[in-house]
Amino acid sequence: MVAPQFHHLAGRVWICPGDPDPEAVQAGVAVVVDKRGSVMIDAGQSPAHAREIQVALAAAGLPQPRWLVYTHHHWDHVWGACAWPGVEIVGHEAAVPLLRAEAARPWSHHYLDEQVRANPRLGPSFRARARAVDSWEDFAVLPPTRTFTDADELPVGVGLRHVGGRHAPDSTVVLVPDSGVMVLGDCFYPPPAHLRRPEDGLDLGLVRRLLHDDYHWYVSSHAEPMTAEQARSAVEDA
């Protein structure tokens, strides 16, 4: 696996792709740079991944964040949060009970093995978690400390909009209008693998409803960024 690296996308937005190996279940992250305080979008899949992201930030000459935004509550987007000191964690209100329930679980390699034996459909996700976390000693699942219902805007001109969807009830898109960038997270993806039915697919209709002339880049967590032209082409029949 290649060490994470940040690449400039547009305006104030830099992106750091995740591991392209689907078995790794590693989401990419983004940062919106601002001298008043930068915004990190998603936390990394584990404390180790978060620390690699921090090294990549420093290597690119980018500041450490003041805010950490969750696009949604799934583990590969939030499990690195406990390794981000001094940030305000921002997410949709629906994430709070979900992550409090996750925080109460007795996470360990033994527990992960037990869960997979009880429900083999959890195997891909839980085996990836076991590979991602080498030590549970200082691990914690952290709910957001700043929440919103429909929309929010951080003091640095970064907007948050709840869109929900089948992938996660708290799915949020992050809007950076001065850079022409919309970060989609996983909002249009099908449900997680252990909940997915054969007929479930990408919700391209959701993406079509999000398209706007002010945005030139659409960034999802597990794929290359799409230009506006690519996004419109992908959803034209949705």
UniProtKB/TrEMBL annotation:
One of its GO terms (molecular function) is hydrolase activity. Keywords: Hydrolase. Pfam families: Lactamase_B. It comes from the Bacteria. SUPFAM superfamilies: Metallo-hydrolase/oxidoreductase (SSF56281). Residues 26-222 form the Metallo-beta-lactamase domain. Transmembrane segments: none annotated. PANTHER family: ACYL-COENZYME A THIOESTERASE MBLAC2, METALLO-BETA-LACTAMASE DOMAIN-CONTAINING. This is Glyoxylase-like metal-dependent hydrolase (Beta-lactamase superfamily II). It comes from Micromonospora taraxaci. The lineage of its organism: Bacteria, Bacillati, Actinomycetota, Actinomycetes, Micromonosporales.
